[in-house]
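Q: Can I see a sequence and its folded structure?
A: Here is a first one.
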Amino acid sequence: MDQQTQTELEAAAFRTLLAHLDKRKDAQNIDMMNLAGFCRNCLSKWYMAAAHERDVPMDYDQAREHIYGMPYAEWKEKYQLEATPEQLAAFANSHK
């Protein structure tokens, strides 16, 4: 497979991941961190880092808006639930 095709396939897979996460707003970031070790904020940081590697100006808020599909504050207000004591304990345990 040539590099251009690989890049296009990876980009398509990433867009599909973002669409999936958009449909699964019930999947809370803390749950994703506890189960997979990354969340939407991590994706935002990776997206921003990739932009910076290519000298594309982007700040964290812009990156999060791309990943969340809306400004982060709006997403947080609409969809983010308060973490339960169990979720917080699992997070603390997995990040020792």
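Q: Show me another, different protein.
A: A second, unrelated one:
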Amino acid sequence: MTPELLPLPLAAGIASGFILWLTSWLEFRQVKSGSESHWTERAREQFPVLQSARTNLWSVPTVVALVLAWSFPTPNWMDVVNWFAGLAGAMVGTRPLDRWRGYHLPFRRWCRHILGGWLPGLAGWFVLVAGVVLMPAKFGPLVLAVFLGALALHVALALGAGIWVSERLGWVHPATPEVIETVRRLASANGQRPPRVLQVESTAANAMAVAGGSYVLLLGPLTSLLTPAELETVLAHELSHSREGWRVVLGRVIGSLWLFPWILVRPLSASVGLAAPVLLAFGTMGVLKFNRWLNLRFEHRADAAALESQESAGIYARALLKLHEFNLSPATLEKKSSTHPDLYDRMIAAGVDPGFPRPKPAAALGWGGRLFSILVGPLAIWTVINWLENGGF
């Protein structure tokens, strides 16, 4: 990188970090409920702020990188560098939000949280952005090669390749022997091969299974927050996901590709003009709807497996309640955006009275997240116009 280009990624990182910090701060100031409020009300107000920050992790660097691309003619690879720098800045910009919400980690643990918790999930974005920028402008053998190469990387990441690398680098580590033995026992009872169980540094307490059944990840203080009986039901839930058939795994991989077709936006725009981003947007919405349907269907099945594994009634419901209260996850969400059943409904289905009236559903996204998500669309169309009129940046 030449010295005259060095200020651009620095500017992208600083601008993205400042924008994300500022929008999070302004949104969090609008939270009215205090510590004396019931946790469901605090969760309802804070959840949109958190979702805005998560969405802005990719939308803000994208906006900043596009603005820099228009303002300073540079090689295409420089756009990728600027986006990555913007992402790094945006990650730093989220750190104050953790403190405001009460989920603060010391700096070294926060770095492990970023490296082991976020980067494997964001690696697919790296592949997508690099592919969009480096994709040739006209269809041909090189377009096919870039598309297939990026697709192979994305599928590998969806099946746990990023987690595998993180473990080799020491960013995540195996769970305690007691937890591993519990997973082995539950897996043996179901006649399945036990997945590898890893502990991931996080500000949230949660568990998740990686598509294909290779890993179960335990996030944050999950094991210390729950009793052994409660933890066992949560693990039974995740093991239900781990033994999903190949058709479901294929469906999950397809669902993870909701933005991947945008890798073809440049050659597709050269062929059909401004219809390209419109067609890709409709495709994105269709895949998102499919992904939501698939998730909801198999979350219900996993909940049933958890209820079947519990030693006595109410254990799994108490585990869910503890996790939602600790994480300040809403008890009800807007149905159009939720990929999991509401906590309130899950507790009723488990035969347990939640102990509080049904709360108002939390908004899916705050105004900051909506603002930059909306900006990406017109900026993408403007980018296509520049490609068509000027042959690219």
